[in-house]
Automatic annotation (TrEMBL):
This is Inner membrane protein YpjD. InterPro entries: Cyt_c_assembly, YpjD/HemX. Keywords: Membrane, Transmembrane, Transmembrane helix. PANTHER family: INNER MEMBRANE PROTEIN YPJD (PTHR38034). Pfam families: Cytochrom_C_asm. Residues 38-262 form the Cytochrome c assembly protein domain. The lineage of its organism: Bacteria, Pseudomonadati, Pseudomonadota, Gammaproteobacteria, Vibrionales. The chain crosses the membrane at residues 62-84, 90-111, 123-145, 176-198, 210-228, 240-258.
């Protein structure tokens, strides 16, 4: 049953992508209702699949593939809701592609990492903040890459104004720093709850998560300071945003990937 749900969700994500891409390539109108219907149906099936894969009688299965699928779901949901107000057509194919890949991996390559969050509400708070901070800052990295691409096109004097499906450069920049600010606040909460609630945070095999997450927090804090105090823009912003997301990816998935995928 889970495989059928996964296939349905993946196909709906693909339908949304197939509806968006021609509008970007050929600079024609995008059928917003078709994209919205496909995306939200895909999200419904995706959420259904996650509930089946994660919630088990023995606890919560937070395997690396399930967590990756959950993060993709959060990002896709946030971006789909934002789509209703802003032009995110350039980013949605990327987001939906990763969602389809991650949910397929979780469904067809099952793995197990059982936890018991119902017995430790404090750990649940910490993990929830970690998931939302990583998802938010990943969205920030996508915005930064979109900003760099738009800036490159404008500097190369290619007429972006013809394509009404692309967002204005300044709007993307404002949204980028708003997203990074929110994500860094969530990351701050993640680090604080980790220090307070997680007793073995610096135990062997876990210390790298705290260290890399803290380094990422420093990177984002410098980026925010540089923008609001020094007026940083352009390529430097992109490098900082992508570097921070890369550090968090290593922190959240590095050792789990080695233990669950390579050594298993």
């Amino acid at each position: 049953m889970d495989n059928i749900i996964a296939v349905a969700a993946a196909l709906l994500y693909v339908l949304a992508i197939a509806t968006i891409v021609p509008g970007l390539v050929h600079q024609v109108g995008i059928r917003t209702k078709t994209v919205s219907a496909s995306a939200f149906l895909a999200l419904a099936f995706h959420g259904w699949l996650l509930s089946d894969l994660i919630i088990e009688s023995s606890g919560q299965n937070l395997s690396i593939l399930n967590v990756a699928s959950l993060i993709s779901f959060i990002i896709s949901l946030v971006m789909s809701l934002a789509m209703l107000k802003t032009r995110l057509w350039f980013l949605l194919p990327v987001v939906y592609s990763f969602a389809a890949i991650n949910l397929s991996g979780a469904a067809f390559l099952p793995s197990t990492f059982i936890t018991h969050l119902e017995q430790d509400p404090k750990l649940l708070i910490h993990i929830s903040l970690a998931l939302f901070s990583y998802s938010t800052l990943t969205i920030g990295a996508l915005y930064a890459m979109q900003l760099a691409w738009l800036d490159h096109k404008l500097k190369s004097k290619k007429a972006l104004s013809i394509n009404s499906n692309l967002p204005p450069l300044l709007m993307v920049e404002r949204q980028l720093f708003r997203i990074i600010l929110i994500g860094n606040l969530l990351l701050t909460g993640t680090l604080l709850t980790g220090f307070v609630f997680v007793e073995d945070m610096f135990a062997q095999g876990k210390a790298h998560k705290a260290i890399l997450s803290f380094i990422a927090w420093v990177v984002y804090s410098i980026l925010l300071w540089g923008h609001y105090q020094k007026g940083w823009r352009g390529r430097k912003v992109t490098w900082f945003a992508v570097a921070g997301a890369f550090l968090l990816t290593l922190a959240y998935f590095g050792s789990r990937f080695v233990r669950e995928v390579i050594l298993n």
